[in-house]
Amino acid sequence: MSNTPPLVKTTHMEPPPRWALLQRQLFSQMNEAAEAFVKRYTRPDGTLVWREEWPGMDGSDDAYESFWSFPLFYALGGSENVHRLSRRLWSAVTWQFTEYGQIHREFDAYYDWMHHGESSQYIYGFGLADPNVHIDRRRALRFANMYIGEDDEAQNWDPERRMIRSPINGSRGPRFHMTAEDWSTHRWVLANYLSPYEDVPGLDPDDPFAKADWNDDAVFEQILVRMNERMVPGDIPLNLNATSLAASAYLYTGDPKYKRWVLDYIEAWTERTRANGGIMPDNIGPNGAVGERMGGNWWGGYYGWRWPHGARIILESTLIAGANALLLTGDESYLDLHRSQWDMLWELGREEDSVFKTPNRHGRVGWFNYISPDARYPMHCFALTHSAQDKARLDAAAPPESYARRTGFGKGAQAQPGPWLALSQGQNDDAPELMMDAACREVARRLEIMRNDDGDPNEWDVHHWQDINPVVCEPIAQLSLGSVGAVYHGGLLHATVRYFDAERRRPGLPPDAAAAVLRASRGEAEIEFVNASALEERQMIVQAGAFGEHAFTTAETNGGQTQVNGPCFRLNLAPMSRQRVRVGLKRYVHDPSYNRPWQS
């Protein structure tokens, strides 16, 4: 910390703007609301107030998702008590779902990487909160080792073919045969999707949207037979989400074996895509061949081009893996696999009812299910690179005026990324207030649901708590860090900057302090800092990137310019002060790490 050059101490006295007061209000409200939420929905031992049995392989991810925001909130500046609760609750959920049968050795025994990715957001938050907790570090390495071939019980990795050996995998290794019990808790949900196969008896094979009734035991038996014949064993693009697990282990240790695995895996999928004429195959058989168990078809795999969600999962998984490889190497070309699939779908697009749409699925009839392109993917890609080519993709999919004022919250309190991204490009200057207002309303809405939640816990669905959790901190992360947030199904948090309380030697904004990244480009950013305390100076360290992966060249205030030429600088905020700092940036030039600035 002694090597972090201080800026000129700010002395400009000015009442704090409304967005800053709302940001500080949110910290206070969520510190209290987190405790109330835990008290309402957990027992004294931390386990969820819920049923005594829960079969199948689904569910633990939803329990983890109900509290995933707690460690992130602490890393932003939330209370020490929220930090303690986050670790206690993770352990309690892990124990509870071990008793149910889903968890083995503190990780899902077997499931897919959409769900593994959701639950892993929680443990990635621990690295941001405090990388020095020994048990967290050991777990992160142990979990990663299950996928890089260094765990005797969980041999998920085939090093010769550079593939994960099954779509269903986990701490017991690859799953090569699925049972009726595996799907027992969510057959009724899957009955609402199109059938996973077009040749299920009783369906019209020429109707790509035909639904199979999973609730009918005879139909379900036919589906299960086909799943075991065609979908397992083998690899699928969704497994690329596992690269975050290995990248997180690298952030703890800097061990090059984790980096090498991430790069090997995305390069293997890049080669398969190139060999398949530029279209990413969605199923690789146990011997490494495309379509090996799907009659030679490159489509039809588990979470593939056809079922259940289509292209969205392909785009999301390639984005997560490309972002991880970029973080570990600084090489933006690792995003090309994702870009190539976006571009391919775009070229297949067409006008329908005066609206441009791209295909979301492929099956026996070819491409079908044309939908409006989901701008979240080019938003994330552009936020990573700020490059002209990624800006062009984003503008074609959705110009700033279409998303600049779009607030709202999805599953697990994901916040719409548009308002901050528009702000960063010089649009929508009232976004800071808009975003903080939206977060305040969402916290209030969730607390109202909690106050009126008088149902029988034995009747609750496994998703019950995640949309009530009042720690809705992603808008603070977006605004203060300059980020569109993590890709939800398992991405790491990429950001322009990050903050540490210099006096308390902990992560996050100091008390009374607020921050907003107002502009961001490839080579610079403008950040507004506020100290709302009337009496106390606040001292903070500003870091370039969530993991110190960027570098500051300069930091300029109205008091002059400071040469930084490093990953962080110290900023002293006078009481009742408001200061804009323009920083020069070099992106992805430092080795990323969970370490705090004073550990570097």
| Approximate strand percentage | 5-15%
Number of helices: 18
Strand order of the largest sheet: 10-11-16-13-14
Radius of gyration: 24 Å
Descriptive notes:
The longest helix has 24 residues, at 18-41. A hairpin with a 3-residue loop joins strand 10 (513-520) and strand 11. The chain has helices at 18-41, 60-65, 69-76, 80-100, 113-129, 134-148, 187-190, 217-230, 243-253, 256-275, 311-329, 336-347, 376-385, 388-397, 400-403, 418-424, 431-451, 474-481; strands spanning 103-104, 107-108, 157-158, 163-164, 350-352, 355-363, 366-371, 497-501, 506-507, 513-520, 524-531, 538-544, 551-557, 560-566, 568-573, 577-586. It is globular. The protein is of the alpha+beta class. 38% of the residues lie in helices and 14% in strands. The strands form 5 sheets. Strands 10-11-16-13-14 form a 5-stranded antiparallel beta sheet. The protein has a 4-stranded antiparallel beta sheet with strand order 9-8-12-15.
In short:
This protein is of the alpha+beta class and 600 residues long. Helices cover 38% and strands 14% of the residues. It has helices at 18-41, 60-65, 69-76, 80-100, 113-129, 134-148, 187-190, 217-230, 243-253, 256-275, 311-329, 336-347, 376-385, 388-397, 400-403, 418-424, 431-451, 474-481; strands at residues 103-104, 107-108, 157-158, 163-164, 350-352, 355-363, 366-371, 497-501, 506-507, 513-520, 524-531, 538-544, 551-557, 560-566, 568-573, 577-586.
Descriptive keywords:
alpha+beta, five-stranded antiparallel sheet, 600 residues, 18 helices, four-stranded antiparallel sheet, 16 strands
